């Protein structure tokens, strides 16, 4: 019986850790994009996650990744 209770607590603790980790990973601000041609003066993002409005800064670089 005691081993069964320990297993239950272990499973509950593991589930709580996994849930808290997945909830934390979705609450972090993030943005997804790709290399784009800026000749038209616009840049788009595939996905943006933010808790509030803000700014996205884009730096134009050359082929060697220097400004």
Task: Give an overview in words.
The mean pLDDT is 72. With 67 residues, this protein is mostly helical. The longest helix is centred in the first third of the chain and has 26 residues, at 2-27. It has one domain (2-49). A two-stranded antiparallel ribbon has the order 1-2. It has one helix spanning 2-27; strands at residues 30-32, 47-49. Helices cover 39% and strands 9% of the residues. It is built from 1 helix and 2 strands.
Fold blueprint:
Blueprint: H1 2-27, E1 30-32, E2 47-49
Antiparallel strand pairs: 1-2
What key phrases describe this protein's structure?
single chain, 67 residues, mainly alpha, 1 helix, elongated
Structural class: mainly alpha
What strand line-up does the widest sheet have?
1-2
Major sheet characteristics: 2 strands, antiparallel
Number of strands: 2
Helix fraction, binned, reads 25-40%
Low confidence ranges: none
Strand content: 5-15%
Mean pLDDT: 72
What's the tally of helices? 1
Radius of gyration: 22 Å
| SSE order, one letter for each helix or strand | HEE
As for the number of domains, it is: 1
Give the CA-CA distance, first to last residue.
66 Å
Mass-distribution shape: elongated
Structure summarized in a few sentences:
39% of the residues lie in helices and 9% in strands. With 67 residues, it is mainly α. The chain has one domain (2-49).
């Amino acid at each position: 019986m005691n081993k069964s209770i320990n297993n239950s607590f272990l499973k509950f603790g593991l589930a709580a850790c996994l849930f808290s980790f997945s909830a934390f990973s979705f609450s972090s601000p993030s943005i997804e994009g790709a290399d784009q041609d800026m000749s038209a003066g616009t840049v788009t993002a595939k996905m943006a996650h933010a808790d509030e409005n803000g700014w996205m800064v884009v730096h134009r670089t050359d082929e060697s990744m220097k400004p």
